[in-house]
């Protein structure tokens, strides 16, 4: 009988070395750069068929409405739209990688907060000519502009604000919306008293949406950015986070909540307030078993620190951009149609409560006479502002850096003053990079 | 009897060495293309400031490495080790206990063996989502049961607290890992001759004595391989942690795998990501050295 000459010990050793080597190499290899990039993603720009990348196609409530717009276009133009979708919280990462790698072409849905970061990649087409044909509102047009170039056609423009469940407020004996942070806190304590697992305010506490802290910081007087100077870390930002921590410790806000958890809790009638964009009404009501919930949803002006202060809200909206390359012209026409065709935008509004970004669409009786939308515009969007960090390619990292520090405070891992000082330093470093 | 000489005559001019090289060449070429080149390229990138989205890069020397060493490397290492050790030892103990039970001739052991394999055949991401719903603070099954039984008065944020988040991640990984460990150990146990147990029993050895004197020496080799492999896999494990906590809350479950991912694909900072990956690989090499030292020492002691 012959033997291999390799002892069990040697075999074991080689096995271990091999496994460790492949593990380490594979790990690093995954981060290897993919080479240079060109500004166009290639292909025939006049092709009739193109792709449409959208997170709405990944959301149960929005998907049918977007699919309907796509189907109508395909039928009318006798062309084919290839759809691509990623969940909202993963969307920017996935899109950036695919766009940078030349795999994304055609029309691309973008959150206005991401436009700056994506536009800086140099892959988006200038849509100035198309924008002139759309009849968009001034605010809408501006939401698609970065560095003086029209990269996106506005699909919807609104804001992120507070939504209340009037049934729960009534049950807790709250007859008026709280105007100041003090009144708001008192209202939350009343709501907590209802018991039954009610979360008074389903505020974001997970990193993914903890950017919602920014309007509260502004409410407490922090400007976030003053010229070139990052002001996160000042007394106002520390006060805001200290207050947020107080709400957390008193269980007036819940741990482990992102936008989708908040919608689920609100939909179950277990949250009295939560932060959302105007889309929240349609998305939350659609997933709720309570068919009367939509009527109970009320937009609430964000409470101010002192009576007379300007309420803070974050501007919010979607645009459709177009990647240079394959199907660019047809994708531009599709983007123009989806965002400005009156019948299409009004029907989209009727399904998802997303107001059009065109003057004609907003003047349509179906939009103009909608009480929720009118109230939202008056009470929240009127004073909404964009984030000063949107101009930076590192916006997502900036939001995450602040969110991680706020989360550290919430879980007791850091003191508000130290955490905000660290957040400010990290944001300043990111801006410099 | 040797058969190589006639083959050389009929096969032409290739020597054994050249023939072996010919056989390994495709594998080596593939290895160079998909592992060596990206690895060297990635290691090189660690010395540059490079954004994944933007063209061009700038040489920054050791800046990316010092960034990690100055901010959080120790914490990430500690958390990676806590996860790795926890997610290796716990499923090993459970798997070994079940393997011993199934090897003892338990009634219905065939059915139970199949049943216990169930978690192993479910994809890791699905397992992670399943446990994410179980641990959910606001509508999770675990809180529901504990509230119903009166063990807790209000919902606990299992994944939202640093203390419980790591525990939850280890439990989830344990659930996914113990079956394969059980199967490997059971295979090892089945090679132990029954006669040895019978002889030890006749000499008056009890169950515990028989385990340490007969069973353990026979399965120690298999157990070492199982532990080593699980340790390596856990040291680089990603999906369970990423799905359950994303490395949070406040970085409490951040390991090398999630930190490299966050840096590369959320922060788009390729330079820092590859620098951390390089440091991580250095640690793996330390593990290799430690492993070699241990095995050599054992060999010399014999």
Tell me the overall shape of chain B: globular
Order of helices and strands of chain B: HHEEHHHHHHHHHHHH
CATH topology of the largest domain in chain A: D-Maltodextrin-Binding Protein, domain 2
Number of helices of chain B: 14
Strand arrangement, major sheet of chain B: 1-2
The assigned CATH architecture of chain B is Orthogonal Bundle
Largest sheet of chain A: 9 strands, mixed
State the low-pLDDT regions of chain A, or none. Answer: 1-6
The CATH class designation of chain B is Mainly Alpha
Profile the largest sheet of chain B.
Answer: 2 strands, antiparallel
Straight-line N-to-C gap of chain B: 34 Å
What's the CATH class of the largest domain in chain A, please?
A: Alpha Beta
Q: CATH architecture of the largest domain in chain A, please?
A: 3-Layer(aba) Sandwich
Q: Based on helices, strands and strand pairing, what is the structural class of chain A?
A: alpha/beta
Explain what the structure shows:
- The complex is a heterodimer of chains A (433) and B (302).
- Chain A is of the alpha/beta class.
- Chain A is 47% helix and 15% strand.
- Chain A starts with 7 loop residues before the first helix and ends with a helix.
- Mean pLDDT of chain A is 88; it is low at 1-6.
- Chain B is built from 14 helices and two strands, in the order H-H-E-E-H-H-H-H-H-H-H-H-H-H-H-H.
- Chain B has helices at residues 4-11, 16-45, 63-70, 73-103, 109-116, 118-121, 124-135, 141-149, 162-189, 194-202, 207-235, 239-244, 256-266, 270-301; strands spanning 48-49, 58-59.
- Chain B starts with a helix and ends with a helix.
- Classes of the chains: A alpha/beta (433), B mainly alpha (302).
- The interface between A and B is large, with 61 and 68 residues.
- Chain A: InterPro entries: TAT_signal.
- Chain A: Keywords: Signal, Transport.
- Chain A: Belongs to the bacterial solute-binding protein 1 family.
């Amino acid at each position: 009988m012959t033997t291999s000459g390799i002892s069990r010990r040697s075999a074991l050793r080689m096995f271990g070395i091999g496994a460790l080597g492949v593990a380490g190499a594979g790990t690093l290899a995954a981060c290897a750069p993919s080479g240079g990039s060109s500004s166009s993603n290639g292909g025939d720009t006049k092709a009739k068929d193109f792709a449409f990348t959208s997170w709405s196609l990944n959301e149960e409530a929005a998907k049918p409405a977007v699919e309907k717009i796509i189907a109508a276009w395909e039928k009318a133009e006798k062309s084919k739209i290839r759809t691509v979708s990623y969940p909202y919280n993963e969307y920017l990462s996935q899109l950036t990688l695919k766009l940078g790698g030349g795999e994304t072409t055609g029309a691309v849905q973008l959150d206005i907060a991401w436009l700056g970061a994506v536009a800086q990649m140099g892959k988006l087409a200038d849509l100035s000519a198309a924008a002139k044909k759309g009849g968009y509102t001034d605010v809408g047009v501006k939401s698609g502009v970065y560095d003086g170039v029209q990269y996106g056609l506005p699909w919807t423009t609104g804001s992120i604000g507070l939504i209340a469940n009037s049934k729960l407020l009534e049950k807790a004996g709250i007859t008026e919306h709280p105007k100041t942070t003090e009144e708001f806190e008192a209202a939350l304590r009343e709501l907590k008293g209802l018991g039954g697992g009610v979360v008074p305010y389903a505020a974001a506490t997970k990193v993914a949406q903890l950017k919602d802290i920014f309007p509260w910081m502004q409410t407490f007087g922090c400007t976030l950015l003053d010229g070139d100077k990052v002001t996160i870390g000042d007394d106002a930002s520390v006060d805001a986070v200290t207050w947020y921590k107080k709400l957390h410790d008193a269980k007036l806000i819940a741990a482990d909540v992102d936008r989708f958890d908040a919608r689920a809790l609100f939909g179950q009638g277990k949250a009295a307030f939560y932060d959302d964009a105007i889309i929240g009404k349609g998305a939350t009501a659609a997933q709720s078993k309570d068919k009367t919930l939509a009527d109970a949803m009320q937009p609430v002006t964000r409470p101010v620190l002192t009576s007379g202060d300007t309420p803070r809200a974050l501007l919010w909206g979607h645009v459709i951009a177009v990647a240079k390359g394959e199907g660019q012209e047809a994708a531009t026409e599709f983007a123009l149609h989806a965002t400005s065709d009156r019948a299409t935008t009004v029907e989209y509004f009727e399904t998802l409560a997303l107001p059009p970004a065109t003057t004609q669409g907003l003047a349509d009786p179906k939009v103009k006479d909608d009480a929720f939308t009118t109230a939202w515009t008056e009470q929240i969007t009127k004073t909404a502002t964009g984030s000063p960090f949107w101009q930076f390619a590192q916006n997502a990292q900036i939001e995450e850096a602040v969110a991680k520090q706020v989360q550290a405070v919430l879980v007791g891992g850091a003191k508000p003053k130290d955490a905000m000082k660290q957040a400010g330093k990290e944001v300043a470093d990111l801006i410099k990079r | 009897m040797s058969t190589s000489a006639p083959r050389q005559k009929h096969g032409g001019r290739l020597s054994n060495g050249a023939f072996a090289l010919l056989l390994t060449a495709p594998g080596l070429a593939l290895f160079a293309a998909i592992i060596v080149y990206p690895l060297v390229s990635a290691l090189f990138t660690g010395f540059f400031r490079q954004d994944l989205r933007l063209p061009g890069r700038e040489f920054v020397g050791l800046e990316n490495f010092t960034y990690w060493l100055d901010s959080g490397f120790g914490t990430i290492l500690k958390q990676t080790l806590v996860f790795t050790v926890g997610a290796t030892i716990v499923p090993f103990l459970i798997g070994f206990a079940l393997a011993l039970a199934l090897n003892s001739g338990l009634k219905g052991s065939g059915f139970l063996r199949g049943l216990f394999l169930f978690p192993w055949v479910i994809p890791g991401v699905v397992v992670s989502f399943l446990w994410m719903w179980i641990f959910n603070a606001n509508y999770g099954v675990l809180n529901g049961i504990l509230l119903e039984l009166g063990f807790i008065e209000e919902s606990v944020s299992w994944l939202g607290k640093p203390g419980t988040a790591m525990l939850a991640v280890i439990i989830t990984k344990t659930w996914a890992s113990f079956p394969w460990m059980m199967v490997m150990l059971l295979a090892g146990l089945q090679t132990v001759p029954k006669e040895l147990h019978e002889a030890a029993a006749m000499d008056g050895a009890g169950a515990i004595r028989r385990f340490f004197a007969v069973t353990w020496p026979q399965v120690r080799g298999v157990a070492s391989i199982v532990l080593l492999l699980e340790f390596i896999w856990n040291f680089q494990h990603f999906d369970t942690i990423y799905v359950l906590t994303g490395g949070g809350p406040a970085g409490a479950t951040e390991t090398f795998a999630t930190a490299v991912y966050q840096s590369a694909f959320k922060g788009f900072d390729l330079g820092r990501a590859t620098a951390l990956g390089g440091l991580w690989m250095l640690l793996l090499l330390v593990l290799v050295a430690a492993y070699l030292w241990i095995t050599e020492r054992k060999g010399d002691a014999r």
